Amino acid sequence: MPLIRIATRTSPLARWQARFVADRLAASAADIRVEFVPVRSGGDRDRTTALKDFGGIGAFTSAVQNELLEGRADVAVHSLKDLPTEPAEGLVLACVPKRAACSDVLILPADRPVTAAGLDVLPHQGRVGTGSPRRQAQLLHARPDLVMKENRGNVETRIARLDAGDFDAIVLAEAGLQRLGLTERIRVRLNPPIMLPAVGQGALGIECRSDDSRCRTLLKHLIDEPTWQAVRAERRLLHALRAGCHAPVGVYTQYEDSGRTLSLTAVLLSPDGRRRLEATARGPAENPEAVGQAAADDLLAAGGDDLL
């Protein structure tokens, strides 16, 4: 029986994602068996340095990719928002399954009731735990009084710090909470225009070696075409801006005209949230890269280089 080795980070969320892919591979090809190759990334080992000072690009993916390049694994499963847009030589992004929810959400301490709507649930100069420059900038744009605090680690660790009193609230991705069965902790969904998601948020990116025809064929069965088109547009935007996956860039894609047209809205902010540029582009869904490129061109023409 053929063996597929899946490289994955070791957090509970990463393990869930790897099992999700393993189950779908097994369902699409019953004659294979799957083994997991656990990997600790640089971002997992260093949980104190701020993301903006950490080197950001590839911090959570390069160690997993090395398992493929060195032949110890056949497939790598990533949170797509962490995967750099510049492909690693010898690897290919072979598959993106159907996307989960892409919103960011606000989590409050377990014993605190919700007494207002939206960001009004936060007190004046409330302490918000998030290491993401994108989240920090968008929150500060809406509420300049808020105090941003670094909050690194896996989902459970971040929530534990919140409940211990380190923050008044934290921001997490809705998809991760869904996958871990923690949706009861969601208090506020931070939807556009307040908060635009990260490029690829809610989606998984599955890599294999570019010369591995067996894995590329197997992974084709897991592709969700609407998700694949949307994330290609988003990743082209980020690539065209020459920005890393932890830059203060937010993006929201949706389909129009019964799926024939792809609409992409992107924002680019200064780290302190004071400056915010926005651009929207539309185009045929079968040419998503052109949609992402058009939005990036508009942001750069409006002065986006100064913010990058």
Write down the domain tally: 3
Query: What order do the helices and strands follow?
Result: EHEHHEEEEHEHEHEEHHEEEH
The tally of strands reads 13
Q: Helix/strand-derived class?
A: alpha/beta
Q: CATH superfamily membership of the largest domain, which one?
A: Periplasmic binding protein-like II
The proportion of residues in beta strands is 15-25%
Mean pLDDT: 93
- Sheet with the most strands? 5 strands, mixed
Please explain how this structure is put together.
With 308 residues, this protein is an alpha/beta fold. The chain has 3 domains: 1-97 and 203-223, 3-Layer(aba) Sandwich (D-Maltodextrin-Binding Protein, domain 2), CATH 3.40.190; 104-190, Periplasmic binding protein-like II (D-Maltodextrin-Binding Protein, domain 2, 3-Layer(aba) Sandwich), CATH 3.40.190.10; 224-302, Porphobilinogen deaminase, C-terminal domain (Double Stranded RNA Binding Domain, 2-Layer Sandwich), CATH 3.30.160. It is 32% helix and 25% strand. It has 9 helices and 13 strands. The protein has a 5-stranded mixed β-sheet with strand order 2-1-3-10-4, with helices on both faces. It has a 5-stranded mixed β-sheet with strand order 7-6-8-5-9, with helices on both faces. The model has no long low-confidence stretch (mean pLDDT 93).
